Amino acid sequence: MNINENEISKLVKSVILEMTDAGAHPMAVTGGSKKQKGVFDTMEEALAEANKAYTLFRHYNKEQREKIIKKIRELTRSEEEIMAEMAVRETKMGNVYHKILKHHLVADKTPGTEDLECKALSGDRGLTLVEMAPYGIIGAITPSTNPTCTVICNSIGMLAAGNAVVFNPHPHAKECSAYAVDLVNRAVLAAGGPENIVTTVKNPTMETSNIMVNHPSVKMLVATGGPGVVKMLLSSGKKAIGAGAGNPPVVVDDTADIEKAGKDIIAGCTFDNNLPCIAEKECFVLDSVADQLIDAMRRNGAYLLRKDQIQKLEDTVLVDVPPKNPGDKPRKTINKNWVGRDARKILAAIGIDVGDNITCIICETEFSHNFVQEELMMPILAIVRCQTFEQAVDMAVKAEHGNRHTAHLHSKNVDHMTAYAKAICTTIFVKNAPSYAGIGFNSEGHTTFTIAGPTGEGITSARSFTRQRRCVLVDSLSII
Ligand code: NAD
Predict the structure, then answer these.
(1) Per-residue DSSP letters for 212-277?
(2) Rounded Cα distance, 125 and 358, in Å
(3) How many structural domains does the chain have?
(4) Are both 85 and 185 inside the same structural domain?
(5) Which range marks the domain in which residue 265 is found?
(6) Are residue 323 and residue 366 in the same domain, yes or no?
(7) Both 264 and 322 in a single domain?
(8) Which of 84, 126, 127, 131 is nearest to 106 (CA)?
């Protein structure tokens, strides 16, 4: 049989089309030139297409939705390396290997439709059902620190609950976020779902965010990011879930397994170069065990700065905040160029050359130091010596700044665990493990990348993205 070039080309194209529609990785077959699914030039188009999709999707039952979730999990696992590499390349933050682990966690431990429950009240006057119903179109804002994981985690939970989603991702992570939106759409189509049930814009900006937030078809808003975006959503007048900033303190007392505490703290603090909002950001240790803890940290990849080196580091990773009003106190904030960077590169910037084994920079400071007070999101850990456990708790509570986000403790004293938890009131409280145990990594419990402290949903999951609806039948169907 003779086949000419045109016919070969036609054949290849149809195979590619079939493969992509069946959920294959498009970059592998098209070199990334194919139009990404669910990604639009304008926010208006993204909203209109999600609306169209929702009119179909609202009739999908739980079984059909679960089939879609299963496919999203599968594609996430098979493309986790691509997404991890893309996110690090585009944002210049984090660590590829750790980001792969994060995608694995999202794929395996984000709850699906099993999270939705129906409550039945049966009694003398009949039967009442309370069901978890979708909101409709959800507008979601996502961060640069966990861009693809947040898109996938939100998509699983929001679609499981029966919603459509429009994302306005962080502008510095727009390409990898668009890739994740495309992946979700490929999974949805491969599992028999509608086109564009999850959408986004090619170039997200504050303006596209405003259009999304104020659009009448958007019934719920979800913000994962710093204080600015959470405040903006909470003043929108719509139902909003706010997952904001943290500054998690870790306390170590004299009953702890100090060797393990040193190892765990460095593992948590350096995970994805300290980008997770739950990661250890400052440490309060009892003076009697401080030297031992520092030694344990050094055995596990920490570089201890001398006093004279600390100022140099501060001058590098922090910048002055321009005063708003004359007479304002001088204040410092993070230099974003160093967020999520390798410890080795940060050290090189202040003239210290170390090997690959160094993953964390530690230093002893006063409580008032900027390294304690600011959410650095860098593998830098300030250590403050305390005379009593009560003093350590008091400092930890103050350093957490009322974010109600995350706190950590290394101790074998149950009274200490109770007292610290009561005082700090955080959404997540991890004991005797690295911080990532708080989101189900090597621990019990489901995962999320949207931890809603300010609005109280906590470790969000499908049920967080539902509204309760009551269905009442009087004097019937109570069958006893
Ligand atoms: P960021 O606040 O700079 O950006 C988050 C998103 O909000 C982006 O899409 C950004 O464009 C947008 N945004 C920022 N300010 C806005 C405003 N005033 N109006 C409208 N949109 C606005 O956050 P980031 O640097 O990407 O992420 C780091 C921050 O997010 C840290 O503070 C971290 O603790 C927090 N975070 C929290 C969680 C959580 O689950 N609670 C998860 C990840 C990150």
Answers:
(1) HHH-TTEEEEEEESSHHHHHHHHTSSSEEEEE-----EEEE-TTS-HHHHHHHHHHHHHGGGG-ST
(2) 68
(3) 2
(4) yes
(5) 249-446
(6) yes
(7) yes
(8) 84
Question: How much of the chain, in percent, has pLDDT values that exceed 70?
Answer: 93
Say yes or no: 107 and 205 in one domain. yes
Distance 147 CA to ligand 1 centre (A): 10
CA distance 139 to 214: 10
Q: Which residues line ligand 1 (CB under 6 A)?
A: 141-146, 169-171, 206, 209, 224-226, 228-229, 232, 243-246, 277, 375, 449-451
Is residue 220 domain-resident? yes
Return all residues near 95 (Cβ < 8 A) that are at least 6 apart.
Answer: 88, 271, 272, 273, 342
CA 387 → CA 74, 106, 253, 432, distances in Å?
A: 51, 40, 10, 21
Query: Tell me, what CATH number does 112's domain have?
Result: 3.40.605.10
Place 28 in a pLDDT band, splitting at 50, 70 and 90. very low
- For the chain, how long is the longest CA-to-CA vector? 87
Q: What whole-number distance in Å separates Cα of residue 423 and Cα of residue 265? A: 21
Q: Could you tell me the distance, in angstroms and rounded to a whole number, from the CA of residue 367 to the centre of ligand 1?
A: 26
Can you tell me which residue has the tokens 């409709």? 136
**Taking phi first (over 0 means left), then psi (-120 to 50 degrees means alpha), and beta for anything else, what does residue 301 get?**
left
Higher pLDDT, 237 or 22: 237
Share the mean pLDDT of the chain. Answer: 93
Are 309 and 237 part of one and the same domain? no
Q: For residue 5, tell me if it sits in a domain.
A: no
Q: How many angstroms is it from 162 CA to the middle of ligand 1?
A: 25
* Pairing mode of beta strands 466-474, 126-134: antiparallel
Cβ-Cβ contacts under 8 Å for 219 (sequence gap 6 or more): 135, 136, 137, 138, 238, 239
The CATH number covering residue 254 comes to: 3.40.309.10
Within this chain, do residues 264 and 386 fall inside the same structural domain, yes or no? yes
> Which atom of ligand 1 sits closest to the CA of residue 452?
41
Residue with the smallest CA separation from ligand 1 atom 41 is 243
Rounded Cα–Cα distance for residues 198 and 164 (Å): 6
Residue 478 in domain:
no
The reply to whether 2 falls in a domain is: no
Range with the poorest average pLDDT among 33-47, 349-363, 382-396, 455-469: 33-47
Q: Which 3 state secondary structure label does DSSP give 320?
A: strand
* Digit-coded pLDDT (tens) for 190-201: 999 999 999 999
Based on the fold, state whether residues 398 and 465 are members of the same structural domain: no
Distance (Å, rounded) from C-alpha 382 to C-alpha 31?
Answer: 45
No. of H helices and E strands in the chain?
17, 20
Q: Are 400 and 407 in contact (CB under 8 A)?
A: yes
